[in-house]
C-alpha cells in the first residue's frame, strides 16, 4: 500500500508541535470568521489567505486546512442560529436547523451538525487519500483536449445548476470568462482588455474578485434591506448535548450523507448544493418521523450537513489531481496554492508528494481539532453572533479591504474590489448566482490555453476534440447538460398546452 | 423577492441586457486590435471573440426575458448603500493621498457603522481607530506584511 506509507509520512510531518499549533490557529480563525453572518467558506478562506502569506509552505498549508474546515463548521452554525446560509450548500441545513433552534433545540442541532461534519469529513478525506493516487495515474495520460472537455463540463454544471434560471447562471459564467480575458496572454504576450492600465497586466486576482463579490456585495445587500428586515440570532435554550435518542436518529443520516456527498463532490463537475438536497429528500423518505420535517427534524440537519462536508472534501479530488476547481471555495483554494507556487494537478503528486500528503494528513488533524475545540467553544461562537450589526459589518469591511491592501497596496486594486462589490450587490438584488463568476475567472484562461495547445498539436484541426473518445464523450455530456434545462422547460410548456 | 407584477418591459432585465451588449462590443473591438496571429489553430483573439459572441447571445436572451414579468427587487435603503460607498471612497482616498492604512480603515469603519443606522460617529471613529491600529501592529510587527504607511503609521 503505497498511499498508506505516504500518508504515514504525511502524518509524521503534520504532527510536529509547531504544525499542530498552526492547525489549531487555523481552525479557530476559520471558525471565528466563518461563523459571521453571510460569510461562507469561500470568503473565509479568501479573507484569511494574507494571514498565511509569511509562513513556510508546509505550515501555511496546514493552517489552510484548518481554516477550510473551520469555515465550513462556522457556516453551518450561522445557518442554524441565524437562518443566513453563507452559501448555497448550507441552505438545506438552515431549513430544519433553524426550525430546531426556534423550538429551543439549537444545541442538539449544532451538535449533530458538528459530529456529522466530523464523520463525513473523516470518510471523505479517507476517500480522497485512496482515490487521488489512482486518479493521478489516469490524469497523467490526459491530453489537452481531455482537459478542455472536463472544463466544459465544469462550466456548464456550475452555471446551469446554481441559481434560479439557466440564463442568469450562464450570464454569471460569461462575466467570469470576460474577467478572465483581462491581462497579458501567456502564449503570445499580447494584452487583452487592459485598456493600458499596468495593474491589469497580470489579470484579475481571484481573491480580490471573491472578497468583492462576497464580502462587500453582501454588506451592500444587507444594508440596502436592513431597515426593513432586521435579523437576530436565536438564543440556545436548554441542553447543548444530544440525547440518546438524538444519537440514534443521527448516525445513519451522517453515513448516508457522506455516501451521497463524496462521490458527487469528487466528480469534476459543479453543484455543491445537489448532494445536500438529495440527502434531505432521502432522509425525509426514510425517517420514522416524517411529520417532523418542516418543524425541525434532526435527520434533516444531520444528513445534509454530512453531505455538504463530504462533497466539499470530495471537491478536493479534482482540485488536487486535475487542478480543476469546481466550486467557489475550491477556486479560492487554488488561488491560495498558487500563492505558495504550488500548481495542483497530476504533477503535484510526483514533484511535491510530501506536501500533498502533509496536506491530506492535516485535513484529518484539522478535522479532529475542530471537534475537540469547537464543541466546548459553542458558547463563544454564539457570542460572536451577538455583535451589533453596525460594528459587525464595519469590522468585516475593514478586514476584507485589509486583505486586498496587504496583498497588493494599490488604488487600482481597491477600485476593482469596490467595483466587484457593487457588481455582487446588483447580482444578489436580481438573483444572479455568484459562484460561476469566480469559477469562470479561474477556469476560463485554463480552458483557453488547453484548447489552443490541443489545436497546435493537431495543426489547427478542430476535429481533434472529437477524435479522442475521452474528450468527445465529455463534450457531448457538457452539451447535454447545457441543453437539458431548456429542453425540459420546453417539454413542460408543451404538456401544459396539451392539458 | 416579491411576486412579479406590472406589464410591459421589465426595466432591470432590459438594462442588464443592454449592458451585456455594450460589454460584448468592447470585447469585440479589443479583439480586433490584437495583431499577432498563431501559426496553427487559434490565436489570442479567438477567446475574446467567443466571449463577445457569448455575451451578445445572453444580451439577446435578456431582451427576450425582459418581455415577461421579472423579479421585483426588495425595497431599498439607498441612503445606507450610499454610506457604504462613501466609506469605501474614504478608504481609497486615504490610500491615494498617502494618509495611510489606519486613517483609511478608521473612516471605513465609522461610515459603515453609520450606514447600518448608528448615530454615534465620534465613538465609532474611536473604535475604528483602535481596531485599525491593532490590525496594523499585528500585521506589520508579527506577520511582517507591509500595509501602506501614513503619518500615524510612522509613529510606531
Number of helices of chain A: 21
- What kind of sheet is the major sheet of chain B? none
Residues in helix, % of chain A: over 70%
| Structure annotation, total helices of chain B | 5
On the 0-100 scale, what is the average pLDDT of chain A?
A: 83
Q: What distance separates the N and C termini of chain A?
A: 61 Å
- Say what oligomer this is: heterodimer
Portion of residues in beta strands of chain B equals under 5%
Q: Estimate the strand proportion of chain A.
A: under 5%
Unreliable stretches of chain A (pLDDT < 50, length at least 5) are none
Give your account of this protein's structure.
The complex is a heterodimer of chains A (about 500) and B (about 160). Chain A has helices at about 1-15, 15-35, 40-50, 55-80, 90-100, 105-140, 145-160, 165-180, 205-225, 245-265, 275-285, 300-315, 315-320, 330-340, 345-350, 355-385, 390-405, 410-430, 435-455, 465, 470-499; strands at about 185, 190. With about 500 residues, chain A is an all-alpha fold. Chain A has one domain (about 1-499). In chain A, strands 1-2 form a two-stranded antiparallel sheet. In chain A, strand 1 and strand 2 form a beta hairpin. In chain A, helix 2 (about 15-35) crosses helix 3 (about 40-50), helix 3 runs antiparallel to helix 4 and helix 9 (about 205-225) runs antiparallel to helix 17 (about 390-405). The relative contact order of chain A is 0.18. The model of chain A has no long low-confidence stretch (mean pLDDT about 85). Chain B is mainly α and about 160 residues long. Chain B folds into two domains: about 10-65; about 80-155, no CATH class. In chain B, about 65% of the residues lie in helices and about 0% in strands. Chain B has helices at about 10-30, 45-65, 80-95, 100-115, 120-140. In chain B, helix 1 (about 10-30) runs antiparallel to helix 2 and helix 3 (about 80-95) runs antiparallel to helix 4 (about 100-115). Chain B starts with 10 loop residues before the first helix and ends in a 14-residue tail after the last helix. Chains A and B meet through helix 8, helix 9, helix 17, helix 18 and helix 19 of A and helix 1, helix 2, helix 3, helix 4 and helix 5 of B.
Amino acid at each position: 500500500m503505497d498511499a498508506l506509507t505516504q500518508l504515514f509520512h504525511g502524518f509524521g510531518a503534520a504532527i510536529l508541535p509547531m504544525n499542530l499549533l498552526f492547525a489549531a490557529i487555523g481552525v479557530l480563525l476559520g471558525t471565528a470568521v466563518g461563523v459571521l453572518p453571510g460569510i461562507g467558506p469561500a470568503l473565509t478562506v479568501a479573507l484569511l489567505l494574507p494571514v498565511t502569506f509569511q509562513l513556510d509552505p508546509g505550515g501555511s498549508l496546514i493552517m489552510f486546512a484548518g481554516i477550510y474546515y473551520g469555515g465550513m463548521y462556522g457556516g453551518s452554525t450561522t445557518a442554524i442560529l441565524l437562518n443566513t446560509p453563507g452559501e448555497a450548500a448550507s441552505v438545506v441545513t438552515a431549513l430544519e436547523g433553524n426550525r430546531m433552534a426556534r423550538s429551543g433545540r439549537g444545541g442538539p442541532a449544532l451538535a449533530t451538525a458538528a459530529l456529522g461534519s466530523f464523520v463525513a469529513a473523516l470518510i471523505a478525506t479517507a476517500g480522497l487519500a485512496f482515490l487521488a493516487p489512482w486518479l493521478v495515474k489516469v490524469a497523467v495520460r490526459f491530453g489537452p483536449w481531455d482537459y478542455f472537455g472536463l472544463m466544459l463540463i465544469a462550466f456548464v454544471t456550475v452555471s446551469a445548476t446554481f441559481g434560479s434560471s439557466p440564463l442568469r447562471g450562464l450570464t454569471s459564467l460569461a462575466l467570469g470568462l470576460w474577467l478572465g480575458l483581462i491581462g497579458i496572454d501567456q502564449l503570445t504576450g499580447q494584452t487583452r482588455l487592459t485598456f493600458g492600465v499596468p495593474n491589469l497586466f497580470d489579470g484579475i486576482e481571484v481573491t480580490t474578485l471573491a472578497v468583492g463579490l462576497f464580502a462587500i456585495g453582501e454588506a451592500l445587500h444587507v444594508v440596502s434591506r436592513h431597515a426593513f428586515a432586521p435579523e437576530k440570532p436565536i438564543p440556545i435554550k436548554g441542553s447543548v448535548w444530544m440525547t440518546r435518542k438524538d444519537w440514534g436518529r443521527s448516525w445513519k443520516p451522517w453515513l448516508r450523507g457522506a455516501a451521497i456527498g463524496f462521490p458527487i463532490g469528487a466528480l469534476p463537475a459543479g453543484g455543491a448544493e445537489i448532494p445536500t438536497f438529495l440527502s434531505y429528500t432521502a432522509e425525509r423518505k426514510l425517517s420514522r418521523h416524517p411529520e417532523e420535517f418542516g418543524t425541525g427534524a434532526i435527520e434533516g440537519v444531520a444528513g445534509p450537513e454530512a453531505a455538504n462536508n463530504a462533497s466539499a472534501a470530495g471537491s478536493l479530488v479534482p482540485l488536487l489531481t486535475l487542478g480543476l476547481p469546481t466550486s467557489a471555495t475550491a477556486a479560492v483554494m487554488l488561488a491560495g496554492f498558487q500563492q505558495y507556487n504550488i500548481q495542483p494537478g497530476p504533477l503535484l503528486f510526483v514533484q511535491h508528494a510530501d506536501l500533498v500528503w502533509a496536506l491530506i494528513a492535516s485535513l484529518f488533524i484539522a478535522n479532529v481539532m475542530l471537534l475537540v475545540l469547537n464543541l466546548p467553544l459553542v458558547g463563544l461562537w454564539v457570542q460572536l453572533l451577538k455583535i451589533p450589526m453596525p460594528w459587525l459589518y464595519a469590522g468585516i469591511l475593514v478586514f476584507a479591504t485589509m486583505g486586498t491592501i496587504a496583498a497588493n497596496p494599490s488604488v487600482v486594486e481597491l477600485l476593482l474590489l469596490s467595483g466587484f462589490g457593487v457588481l455582487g450587490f446588483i447580482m444578489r438584488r436580481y438573483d444572479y448566482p455568484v459562484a460561476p463568476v469566480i469559477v469562470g475567472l479561474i477556469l476560463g484562461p485554463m480552458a483557453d490555453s488547453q484548447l489552443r495547445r490541443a489545436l497546435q498539436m493537431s495543426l489547427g484541426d478542430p476535429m481533434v476534440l472529437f477524435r479522442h473518445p475521452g474528450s468527445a464523450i465529455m463534450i457531448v455530456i457538457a452539451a447535454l447538460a447545457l441543453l437539458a434545462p431548456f429542453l425540459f422547460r420546453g417539454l413542460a410548456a408543451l404538456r401544459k398546452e396539451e392539458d | 423577492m416579491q411576486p412579479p407584477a406590472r406589464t410591459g418591459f421589465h426595466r432591470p432585465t432590459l438594462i442588464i441586457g443592454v449592458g451585456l451588449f455594450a460589454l460584448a462590443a468592447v470585447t469585440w473591438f479589443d479583439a480586433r486590435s490584437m495583431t499577432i496571429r498563431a501559426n496553427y489553430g487559434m490565436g489570442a483573439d479567438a477567446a475574446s471573440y467567443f466571449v463577445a459572441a457569448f455575451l451578445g447571445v445572453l444580451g439577446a436572451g435578456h431582451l427576450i426575458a425582459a418581455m415577461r414579468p421579472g423579479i421585483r427587487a426588495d425595497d431599498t435603503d439607498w441612503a445606507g448603500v450610499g454610506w457604504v460607498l462613501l466609506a469605501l471612497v474614504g478608504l481609497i482616498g486615504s490610500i491615494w493621498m498617502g494618509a495611510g492604512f489606519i486613517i483609511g480603515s478608521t473612516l471605513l469603519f465609522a461610515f459603515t457603522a453609520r450606514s447600518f443606522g448608528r448615530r454615534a460617529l465620534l465613538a465609532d471613529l474611536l473604535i475604528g481607530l483602535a481596531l485599525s491600529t491593532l490590525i496594523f501592529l499585528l500585521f506589520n510587527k508579527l506577520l511582517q506584511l507591509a500595509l501602506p504607511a501614513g503619518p500615524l503609521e510612522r509613529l510606531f
